[in-house]
Amino acid sequence: MSDRILVLVRHGQSEWNLKNLFTGWRDPDLTEQGVAEAKRAGTLLKAEGLSFDVAFTSALTRAQRTLALVLGEMGQEGVKTSRDQALNERDYGDLSGLNKDDARAKWGEEQVHTWRRSYDVPPPGGESLRDTVARTLPYYVQEILPCVLRGERTLVAAHGNSLRALVMVLEKLSPEGIMKRELATGAPIFYRLAADSTVLEKRDLIA
């Protein structure tokens, strides 16, 4: 059986998730719940008998800390890790730091929904999901995927939208399909890949 393993995990709850703020490239830390979610992810992965050879994360604290907590829970603190802003959350531009309810009051429910849920309409000064895919996918192809195909068990701790970009490719989802896909905080997604990088097995690891 192939040992081309890739696990994706969205960071645990951040302080701004809790406050209902658009976060994007801003850099709040995890909440206590977020720390617990990251540790639980590590426990789930350890219970699966998994270990990792290499890890990737973004340039933002909440993803880096999630990765450290996951690996710490697994007793794997020394795993080779790469950090890159290519895996950062989608940049929400002028919405960053705003309360989502305040944004709806300012621009209207329909406009904010379009910015959040359309594939190719960016918020003012920010990125659409298509822009995020264009930033994240080359990094996946050039840096992450080669590790997986060499048989290095690979962990990626990142963000809802940067991980959506990877899920879109792995699961061959349409722009409409990926916008409907929710990624829970601290919930690992396990993939086993074939030699041609297609998915042989996919499982959501939940407690």
TrEMBL record:
InterPro entries per record: His_Pase_superF_clade-1, His_PPase_superfam, PG/BPGM_mutase_AS, Phosphogly_mut1
UniProt-annotated site: Transition state stabilizer, residues: 159
Record-annotated active site: 11, 89
The entry's keywords: Gluconeogenesis, Glycolysis, Isomerase
Catalyzed chemical reaction(s): (2R)-2-phosphoglycerate = (2R)-3-phosphoglycerate
Biological processes per GO annotation: gluconeogenesis; glycolytic process
EC number from the UniProt entry: 5.4.2.11
Pathways involved: Carbohydrate degradation; glycolysis; pyruvate from D-glyceraldehyde 3-phosphate: step 3/5
PROSITE patterns membership: PG_MUTASE
Enzymatic class: isomerase
Binding of substrate, residues: 10-17, 23-24, 62, 89-92, 100, 116-117, 160-161
One GO MF term attached to the UniProt entry: phosphoglycerate mutase activity
A Pfam family assignment: His_Phos_1
Classification via Gene3D superfamilies: Phosphoglycerate mutase-like
Free-text function comment from the UniProt entry: Catalyzes the interconversion of 2-phosphoglycerate and 3-phosphoglycerate.
Subunit structure as annotated in this protein's UniProt entry: Homodimer.
Similarity annotation: Belongs to the phosphoglycerate mutase family. BPG-dependent PGAM subfamily.
UniProt cross-references to PANTHER family, sorted A to Z: PHOSPHOGLYCERATE MUTASE (PTHR11931)
Name of the protein described by the UniProt record: 2,3-bisphosphoglycerate-dependent phosphoglycerate mutase
UniProt source species: Xanthobacter dioxanivorans
Upper taxonomic lineage: Bacteria, Pseudomonadati, Pseudomonadota, Alphaproteobacteria, Hyphomicrobiales
This protein's encoding gene: gpmA
